[in-house]
Design brief:
9 helices, 3 domains, D-Maltodextrin-Binding Protein, domain 2, Alpha-Beta Plaits, 277 residues
Length: 277
């Protein structure tokens, strides 16, 4: 039986691309929401979920930080996908026939230079793959879509222009979620540990909590705060550090963190992706 990996979005979305690139042997399962993708793994409908957490141009994917701690799932891998944006149209369409391009507003904003140069109007769509699907069904050569090449492949569209994004380094980081943690792999490029914590309500608690990482030489690559349950006083922090909890320096830093926090939850211990370096 083919194992399945769940993602949020329609077939041809960049999350689908991440599934295909990272697990080409698995069947990709499209889901309507991030919650649905998580539930597909919890229910056994899928073995893994591929969830985007941040983009190099637009920062974090807002909902994910709230969903991960409550999901009951564990991070077992990270994956980085270059967001190459392509102009897709009906087969046989010429570039000078295109008057409008449809896509998610974020992608429309990332291709301003190309669209302006060719006098193409921007049309907001719900998402990238959905826009490609709409263009294929509309049957209008004046309307194109901005999406992945995979979306063009799925919906029978031709690529009129490749890699038209303004910024050539636009990358999205994904986390692969599984029902059970797996702390056994050791990555060729090192290890990452992701956790969430809440500091105790004492003066300079965060400053003191971070001290252990500095004194033990543990590199923290991400630290973000967000409110819990709509409260302005209960703040949860999401952190990525380099290293494994079994490493002596990381163990000491986490011990020190424990002293200044009311709660720590490790979300995953996993190999650092080679594209991180």
């Amino acid at each position: 039986m083919t194992k399945r990996i769940a993602f949020q979005g329609e077939p041809g979305a960049y999350s689908h691309q991440a599934c295909r690139d990272t697990y080409p042997e698995m069947e990709a399962l499209p889901c309507r929401t991030f919650e649905d993708a998580i539930e597909a793994v919890r229910s056994g409908e899928a073995s893994l979920a591929m969830l985007p957490v941040e983009n190099s141009t637009f920062g974090r994917v807002a909902d994910i930080h709230h969903l991960l701690p409550e999901s009951g799932l564990h991070i077992i891998r990270e994956a980085f996908v270059r967001v190459h944006i392509n102009l897709l149209a009906l087969p046989g369409t010429k570039l000078d026939q295109v008057e409008s391009a449809m896509s998610h507003t974020v992608l429309l904003g990332q291709c301003r230079d190309f669209l302006s140069k060719h006098g193409i109007h921007r049309v907001a769509g719900a998402d990238t793959a959905g826009s490609a699907h709409h263009v294929a069904e509309a049957g209008d050569p004046k309307l194109a879509a901005l999406a992945s090449e995979l979306a063009g492949e799925i919906y029978g569209l031709e690529v009129l222009a490749r890699h038209i994004e303004d910024q050539s380094n636009n990358t999205t980081r994904f986390l692969v979620m599984a029902p059970q943690p797996d702390h056994t792999p050791r990555g060729d490029n090192g290890m990452m540990t992701t956790f969430v914590f809440q500091v105790r309500n004492i003066p300079a608690a965060l400053y003191k909590a971070m001290g252990g990482f500095a004194t033990n030489g543990v590199n923290m690559t991400k630290l973000e705060s967000y409110m819990v349950g709509g409260s302005f006083t209960a703040t949860q922090f999401y952190a990525d550090i380099e290293g494994h909890p079994d490493d002596p320096a990381v163990a000491r830093a986490l011990d020190e963190l424990d002293y200044f926090t009311s709660d720590i939850t490790i979300l995953g211990v996993y190999p650092a992706d080679r594209q991180r370096h």
